[in-house]
């Protein structure tokens, strides 16, 4: 007698829809997305919409202050970024030395970057005041020289804004490059010393090949941040005299005071064609380095 084979029970069809875990995961993320959309995405899109009027750009491009601001911005970026990064590269080698007094000096060196911008930059403004500032007072006391108008002449004002920017941000980039130097194996330096390499040769063939990628990334990132540096110019000169030291980061305030909100936003948006390629290139480099690793 043959055995009777019973058919296997049919499997229940999979349930459609989200699982309980996925539902609660999405539910918990919704408030964060809502806050991001309300306080980040909406203001940005609204600002772009306000500043997208052709009339706003016509007013902006016809303003002679905008032309001088573009020139100031280019000078500010070229001088400040390159001088700052070269000094940071040299100081990173100095602070790499293992001496107690150098370590204490590095702590004092970082104070300029750690302190808030408002009191530190306003202290420069006080010292450089052409009438009763400390710098002109000392020049007259020691050398009987009447100091120039450090903040009332365009070239002096823009020059000191660059100096203040370098002084304020230099410790940060020095620290980044110092970390890059510390990651270089000491065996390479010992081998170079055994071979009789000079300091320049050691830097050219040992330090620089390891720091080159980091240095370029720092230059690109510093350019983006420097383009948006509002404090160094506005707190020191206020854009004066006669709006001659404005950069793109501070020009919008001028139009806001004139109740021209659309032109103010256009003066900010006009910098995006310069920023976006830098960001794209920097992210491309970082992605390529990550893929190689």
Features:
293 residues; mainly alpha; MetI-like fold
In a few lines, what is going on in this structure?
The chain has 293 residues and is mainly α. It has 13 helices and no strands.
Q: Termini distance?
A: 70 Å
Q: What percent of the residues sit in helical stretches (DSSP H or I)? A: over 70%
Element pattern in H and E: HHHHHHHHHHHHH
- Rounded mean pLDDT is 85
Radius of gyration, taken over Cα atoms and rounded to an integer in Å: 28 Å
CATH topology: MetI-like fold
Count every helix, treating DSSP H or I runs of 4 or more residues as helices: 13
Provide the domain count: 1
Say which CATH homologous superfamily is assigned.
Answer: MetI-like
Task: Examine the secondary-structure arrangement and name the CATH architecture.
Answer: Orthogonal Bundle
